[in-house]
Amino acid sequence: MATVIRKDGRILYLVKGAPEIVGARCSPSPDMSQIHHLAERAMRTLAFAHGELREGEDHPAVLTWDGYVGIRDEVRPDVARSVQICDQAGISVKMVTGDSPQTAASIARETGILSTGLIMTGPEFRDLTPEKQRESAEKIQVLARSEPHDKLLLVRALQAKGEVVAVTGDGTNDAPALSNADVGFAMGIAGTEVAREASDIILLDDSFSTIERAVWWGRALFENIQRFLIFQLTINISAAILTFVAPLLGLAPPFTIMQLLWINIIMDSLAALALCSESPHPALMSRKPIPKTASVITPYMKRAILITAAIYIVVGVAGLVTGLPFMHTPQEQATAFFSAFVIAQVWNGLNCRGINGIMPPVFRGNPVFFLVMGCIVIIQILIVQYGGMFFDTVPLSPVQWVIIGLGTMPVLLIWPLLRIGKNTA
Predict the structure, then answer these.
(1) Which residues lie below 8 Å from residue 296, measured CB to CB, with a gap of 6+?
(2) Which of 99, 112, 409, 421 is a Cys-bridge partner for 103, taking CB atoms 3.0 to 4.6 Å apart?
């Protein structure tokens, strides 16, 4: 940049910028042989020069070299660890900076960004053909001496390769890249208003480690949605098929309308509250990112849903045909079947915590889950014991409730067997 001032009747043109660019416009040519020592110490180098303008001139023909300085912004101590975690999670971190290649490389090595990838300058990247830019984009780890448009070119090149691109920035010139990225992160402290408006997410602490934590929580949210889908679809399939098949076999409908409504409330509301409250676990950041084209329901989830629902249907039909033990009247049989179906879903909720074969501590952690599931059991008992007028149920004895609870508990064995099958596949 340049600033024009008037002093003692003279018009002075004051310049600061990259040493090699400023030095090329100076006469005589300055000695810059020691600048690389500053760059190797991860210092940003800034040169100063001046010239005198005559009336009507935009800039002087030559400049006089004044000197240079080295400036270092200390890297936050948590950055290197966050970069390492991102690398383990399949996230490639790239540095795009206006610093010299030496300074950028030194900082990138210190933070763990640069390993075996390419170091390229903005002019070199701009001079490539679009095809070459796409080929080089994935290999580049440091883009030095870049201009704002270079960041946008890199974003588009990566997106053309099918990558999901997140961009961080704080300046007005970063707005195009922030806007075109799949996710734009603006700095809440140092960021300009234009950068914040162009971004999707604002980092209130301007910390790179916050991005890593955001990815962690985002993956946890996605996994919790999968947990809920397994639970919901298992109930949907089994309840719908049992309701459809029973009359075809000449049996009484297994559920009344009010009972189905209660089952649906469990499925949609309470289960979502319970299963979507699981906290992130460390294994989430040891996986590669899920492709944009991948289905939310994985093959393991499909297998778990179909096998669990099939077991419910087979056992349910057998229970309707033969009757449940220790139930003495048709009303008790119908009430016990309804209660057993609900309690079995509570046991299955424990299974659904172990999405894709990864099971958190089964009987500890996540108090919200156990509170909600406990409420479901209590409400089910109250419905049976006191809500017979609305739900067509009759009260059951404590012994009958214990039999229902123990008789449905083997549901817990389904998912361990599925995980064994997954590990041996």
Answers:
(1) 222, 225, 226, 229
(2) 99
**pLDDT tens for each residue of 233-282:** 998 899 999 999 999 999 889 999 999 999 888 766 788 788 888 888 88
Strand order in 64-71's β-sheet? 2-7, 10-17, 44-53, 64-71
pLDDT for residue 376 is more than 60: yes
**Would the CATH topology of 2-71 be identical to that of 219-424?**
no
CATH 1.10.230.10 fits 79-210, yes or no: no
Q: What are phi and psi of 190, to 5 degrees?
A: -90, -10
As a whole number of angstroms, the distance between CA 273 and CA 388 comes to: 27
From the number of C-beta atoms within 10 Å of its C-beta (0-12, 13-18, 19+), residue 388 rates as middle
Q: Among the CATH numbers 1.20.1110.10, 3.65.10.10, 2.130.10.10, 3.90.1300.10, which is that of 219-424?
A: 1.20.1110.10
> Domain 2-71 is classified in which CATH homologous superfamily?
Calcium-transporting ATPase, cytoplasmic domain N (3.40.1110.10)
The SS3 call for residue 142 is strand
The residue ranges of every structural domain in the chain are 2-71, 79-210, 219-424
Model pLDDT for residues 298-329, shown as the tens digit of each residue: 888 898 899 999 999 999 999 999 888 888 89
CB 207 within 8 A of CB 191: no
Provide the 3-class DSSP secondary structure of residue 19. helix
Pairing of strands 95-96, 140-144: parallel
Q: To which H or E segment does residue 256 belong?
A: none
